[in-house]
Structures are given as structure tokens and as C-alpha cells.
Amino acid sequence: MKTTGGSEVEKRNAGERAAELVADGAVVGLGTGSTTAHAIRALGRRVEDGFEVQGIPTSYQSADLAREVGIPLTTLDDAAPAIAIDGADRIAGFELIKGGGAAHTREKLVASAAARLVIVADPSKECETLDRPVPLEVLPAARRPVSEVVEGLGSTPDLRLAERKDGPVVTDNGNLVLDCDFGRIEEPADLAQKLASIPGVLEHGLFVGLADTVLIGTETGVEERERRR
Ligand SMILES: O=C[C@H](O)[C@H](O)[C@H](O)COP(=O)(O)O
């Protein structure tokens, strides 16, 4: 259920601008997805030019790409990111739905540890009110009980199926993903709290109060928004 409606130029403009925001010597959280990939490649080019950064990946995808472009990797055990760069599936102001690539658990961990979270996206991700299914990463043994609780909250959970294998998507952490459609989410903070309290839910894809900067790439440049604290 990836929602990658934007053009590569829009994504690249956002990603490359985010890479410019990284200071020499910084530890950077490396998000997942097609837009963040542009930021990782741009950071790799800066590293080739002598820039020193260390990346904390949020998935196999971002770790492999970082290695490919020469970004040294570290972990949250060893370093705290000054900045994290990540994509989003839906953006309403500074509130997000993430997890279209099933990476939202580690993405939220790294984003929460970072001093600044920069979101990169194309204009197709923007909306007035969050309105897409919210991914939940759930322990395999918790699929049925979690589904029942989520149904009680007014959603019909949908087990995410793999595209190139029979059966479900299995996350990088060995769990399942339930995509839960709540319609228009008028109170994301309230829903986030309810989802976080369900036993067996590792993490949900609502990111509330985490994003500091939103970079929307366009065909000709980047629109930048900074959250006032
Ligand atoms: O699990 C995946 C992530 O939350 C991605 O950051 C999100 O799906 C956006 O990906 P993309 O930039 O490819 O649209």
C-alpha cells in the first residue's frame, strides 16, 4: 500500500535539500522509502567530497543504500542523531502517517531519538486531514486480539500481503502489518494514544508532534515549513 504518487524530480528536490541541512560531523537518522533514498544518495556524494557523517538506518533498505554510497553506519546504542531525514505517506501540517514500507517502528524510534526530524515528500502526500489507513506492526501471535480491539475502535484491519511472495508482509523485525482504515482522522493524538495502548502492537504509523521540518519537493524547487515550538 505504498502511496508514491509524486515525480522523481519532486522527490529528489526534497531529498537533496534535506541532505544540505546535515552538518559536518553529524550523526544522521536515515529513514526509509523512495524520497529518503534521494537524501541518502546526496549525503553519499557529500561523503565522497570529504564530509564526515555517520548514519543510523531504519531498515535493511536504508542500511544497504547507505553502505552502497559510502556512509558509515552506527547504532542508537553508540550515538544519538542530531537530525533524522524520513519520508511520509500522508502529511497534514506536521502530523503524519508513515509505514507504507512497513518500516515505521524503527523510523519512530530513530525519529524520537533525533534532535530534529526533517520530513521529505512530494506534493501528493499533503492533505487537510489524515485520511489513509494507519499501519500497525503487530506480533504474529497478537493478530487476532489486536484486530478485535481495532474493530472496536471503528476500523476494519487489513493484513498487509506481500507482493512477491504468497502470504503476509513480514517486517524487518519479524512481525505482521495490519492496515487500519479509520476514515478521516480528526484527532490523531487521541487515536495514537489508543493504538499505542493495545497489547501486541509494536508501533503504529501515526507520527504526532515529531516532525520539525517539512520539505515538499516541487518540479522547480522545495517548499519548506518549520514547526514553531
Ligand atoms: O515504511 C516506510 C516509510 O514510512 C516511508 O518513509 C514512507 O512510506 C514514504 O515512502 P516514499 O518516500 O517512498 O513515499
TrEMBL record:
Keyword Metal-binding: no
E.C. no: 5.3.1.6
One Pfam assignment: Rib_5-P_isom_A
Top-rank taxon: Archaea
Molecular functions (GO terms): ribose-5-phosphate isomerase activity
Record flagged with keyword Isomerase: yes
SUPFAM superfamilies reported in the protein's UniProt record: D-ribose-5-phosphate isomerase (RpiA), lid domain, NagB/RpiA/CoA transferase-like
Coiled-coil segments on the chain, per record: none
Catalysed reaction equations from the record: aldehydo-D-ribose 5-phosphate = D-ribulose 5-phosphate
GO cellular component: cytosol
GO biological process assignments: D-ribose metabolic process; pentose-phosphate shunt, non-oxidative branch
Keywords: Isomerase
Gene3D superfamilies reported for this sequence: 3.30.70.260, 3.40.50.1360
Residues annotated as the enzyme's active site: E107
Residues that, per the record, bind substrate: T32, G33, S34, T35, D86, G87, A88, D89, K98, G99, G100, G101, K125
Reported function: Catalyzes the reversible conversion of ribose-5-phosphate to ribulose 5-phosphate.
Subunit structure: Homodimer.
Alphabetical list of NCBIfam families matching this protein: PRK00702.1, rpiA
Family membership: Belongs to the ribose 5-phosphate isomerase family.
Name listed for the protein in its UniProt record: Ribose-5-phosphate isomerase A
UniProt organism field: Halalkalicoccus jeotgali (strain DSM 18796 / CECT 7217 / JCM 14584 / KCTC 4019 / B3)
Organism lineage: Archaea, Methanobacteriati, Methanobacteriota, Stenosarchaea group, Halobacteria
